[in-house]
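User: Before I run my own analysis I want an independent prediction to cross-check against. Here's the chain; please return only the structure tokens and, at the end, one sentence I can use as a sanity check.
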Amino acid sequence: MNQQNCLEAVLEDYLLKNIPISSAMGVRVNLASNSQIILEAPFSNNINHKKTVFGGSLHAIATLACWSLMHINMIKINGGGDIQIVIASSEIKYLLPINTDFKAECHKPDIFEWERFIKILLKKGKARVKLCAKIFKEGQLCVDYYGTFVGIRTSEQDS
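Assistant: Structure tokens:
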């Protein structure tokens, strides 16, 4: 197993054990890196009465994709043990219905925004960053999600 596959397996195991909705939705980690996350879920676990993917499932997987990007990057900063990740707000646009298995993609924001977030987090112990996730079907954007995530250092670090 290469390092990339190991990171995906570790993240997937963490999500399934610590965030119960992940298991119910059938979430799998397709790609995990410090710059990009792709999560996928089967249509069968997330179908609604209209025979499309339930909007709550789309919102949940988009949130999980962004949260996962934060989680991986917080681990890289300091082992992640003393940094909590919470979502402060989110906005979602449902543009087209989905009636197949689906994937949520989250990319790290531009380098300036990310470095600013890290600098404030390390200096003040708390910082926020806006992340986006997108869900496509056959190349068409179906879901556009934005969330403001907060990193909170829960213990003092030695300088």
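Sanity check: The CA atoms of residues 125 and 133 lie 25 Å apart.
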